Amino acid sequence: MNEMPADRVIIALDVPGYDEAAAMTEKLGDLASFYKVGLELYIRDGERALEMLRAAGKRVFLDLKLHDIPNTVAKAVESIKTKGASLTTLHAGGGGEMMRAASAALGGAGGGLRLLGVTVLTSIDERTLREDIGTQLSIPTLVSKWAALARECGLQGVVASALELSLLREKLDDSFLIVTPGIRPAGGDVADQKRVVTPKQAFERGASYIVVGRPVTAAADPADAMRRILDEIS
């Protein structure tokens, strides 16, 4: 990819509302150019937050993790196309018919929007898969299976842990995006994430973009935390 390191770090605005989102983008200023708006913020103040980010010239990852019947997901994608987002998500576990419907709804260039299939959440481990979800497939096997299906269905990329990056890059060239959450700087607190790596490790293994939340947004000095991440990856 030809983008600068700072353009490949997506800051997760997992905050309660607009005021907190606006304050964070102001604190980070030119250090961050790409932001993730997830369910918490979007449900409460989504339109205001998106307008604020667009007005500031920021790119948006609208992380809604769609998972419904194919027609409903297709209609949702048609609506998301009007929001000015660069990326949005749907669960690959929703199956091929759902992902094909989403891809068809995107159509052509999709106004700059690209669809990502969420594979296995970074909060899920092998025990959760076996005991709670009820599958005997390992995480690497399931991630690889869903990533291949997402590509076959016309999606432009996937969301996957960096622990599966090397496996995926053996089968997927750089034109297929891999967006990697669960990023923690060296020595950082992993919190509720079970499968994490450092920013540098993620890019070395083939990540297209990384998503960083609390290590920056919960830091005493978010700008300094962001600078340290950029230093690490450059």
Walkthrough of the structure:
The protein has 234 residues and is an alpha/beta fold. The chain has a single domain (5-233), classed as TIM Barrel, CATH 3.20.20. 42% of the residues lie in helices and 16% in strands. It is built from ten helices and eight strands. The protein has helices at 18-28, 39-55, 70-80, 96-106, 126-133, 139-152, 165-169, 199-204, 214-217, 222-233; strands at 9-12, 34-37, 59-66, 87-91, 114-118, 157-159, 177-180, 209-212. An eight-stranded parallel beta barrel has the order 1-2-3-4-5-6-7-8, surrounded by four helices. Helix 1 (18-28) crosses helix 2 (39-55) and helix 3 (70-80) packs parallel to helix 4. The protein is globular. It starts with 8 loop residues before the first strand and ends with a helix.
